Amino acid sequence: MKTVLFLRKRASSEDNYEKLFKNKGFNTLFIPILTCSYINQKCLRNILEKSPYIMYSGLIFTSRNAIVSFKESLIGIDKQEYEKISNMRVYTVGSACYKELISLGFSNIYGKESGNAENLSKFIISYHKKEEPILFITGERRIGILEKKLPLSGINLKEIVVYKMEERIEFEKEFNKVIYDEELNLEWIVFFSPYGSDIVMKYVKNEDLLKFKIATIGSTTWRHLNDKWNIKTSVVSEYPEAGSLLEGILDYEKEKNEY
């Protein structure tokens, strides 16, 4: 049985990557590279207590961690205020973020088919016509596409950083144990972010990765691996979701007569 290594945390409940890949006969492993800590919670809470639906014409989320931070800051907010906040227009990428926002009560959600910040920026520029600023709730590390492109198109963008990612102490040991274990029949390694890729490359040589097939979630991580580390990628998932990645890997293996 072929093994796929996902360089991310396994979802605490049912993990869609695990479910879909196991249904197609793959063994799955999860090794998270990063650990998340939330910051500026008081500042975010202060924004939420001051009628953000009046101050801002919309919200932007591009990661689940940002949504979790937002959710924590909503605790204790007056019910009527909560309803007004959840009626705000929201822009996001991917089905995972979309589902998280739905669970918080948001319904006015746009951009879930965009798949990445580049496409989302194009959608917002073409769709958003209001003068009030949009609030971008984000993490400490991001590639800056929205921050560059939206203001150039006349959209007033404000941002608040609500979380940061740092390397897990256990990562090096766990990663090396897996990639050098021949009994696992490890065939695929899936990268999820440029920052995570940089950490991986501290502990492995390029030639050691040649025996594996590499997949990335999104073109940003693909470009980073290629341009900075000269790592060739076999599959680039069009959307940041399990189904898109699985489709790409199955198509690749069928083309190579490996599935």
Q: Would you mind describing this structure in some detail?
A:
Residues 16-247 form the Tetrapyrrole biosynthesis uroporphyrinogen III synthase domain. GO terms for molecular function: uroporphyrinogen-III synthase activity. The protein is built from 13 helices and eleven strands. With 259 residues, the chain is α/β, with parallel strands linked by helices. The chain folds into two domains: 2-33 and 169-258, Rossmann fold (3-Layer(aba) Sandwich), CATH 3.40.50; 37-166, Rossmann fold (3-Layer(aba) Sandwich), CATH 3.40.50.10090. The strands form two sheets. It has a six-stranded mixed beta sheet. The protein has a five-stranded parallel beta sheet with strand order 2-1-9-10-11, with helices on both faces. The radius of gyration is 20 Å and the shape is elongated.
